[in-house]
């Protein structure tokens, strides 16, 4: 299946190449990034190695109820109901520059919610970055003014 990153994760050379490509893209695009923010849960697989390569921190954006301490949360619509995302209130400072990462962009609801969380913390979202974009679902159109990058696109 074209939207499953499991085979990529099983192959160390392929995974290293993926991180190389994403690192090259970010270094070429942004002179300064403060944090990589990863979406629950596959963004947690891509984000930390990418943040390590760039010498920056990684922050978690999780499903509601998973993070300790004070949090900001936002609810968003899914095809089959509602969901909520959270970030720790002190995860980023106002004005800090963040790239949000995930494995896949489909309808864009989760990524939009993540952008909203960053907006509430007054961080600057430099880009939303995914490995795979399902173009047919038009998720990137929902991101409006936020720059978006996908490594692979499928119709």
Automatic annotation (TrEMBL):
It is found in: Cytoplasm. Keywords: Acetylation, Cytoplasm, Glycosyltransferase, Phosphoprotein, Purine salvage, Transferase. Its EC number is 2.4.2.7. The keyword Thylakoid does not apply. The keyword Ribosomal protein does not apply. Belongs to the purine/pyrimidine phosphoribosyltransferase family. Catalyzes a salvage reaction resulting in the formation of AMP, that is energically less costly than de novo synthesis. This is Adenine phosphoribosyltransferase. It comes from Charadrius vociferus.
